[in-house]
Amino acid sequence: GALFHEEELIRPLRGPNGRITHFLCAGRDVSALVREMQKLQRLATHDALTALPNRTLFGDRLGQALREAERRGERVVVAMLDLDDFKRINTRYGHLAGDAVLKAVARRTQRSVRAIDTVARIGGDEFALILPGVRTQRAAAKLLGKICATNAASVHYGRTRIPMSVSIGASFYPRDGHGGVVLRRRADKAMYASKAAGGNRWRFC
Question: What Rg value do the Cα atoms of the chain yield, rounded?
Answer without folding.
Answer: 24
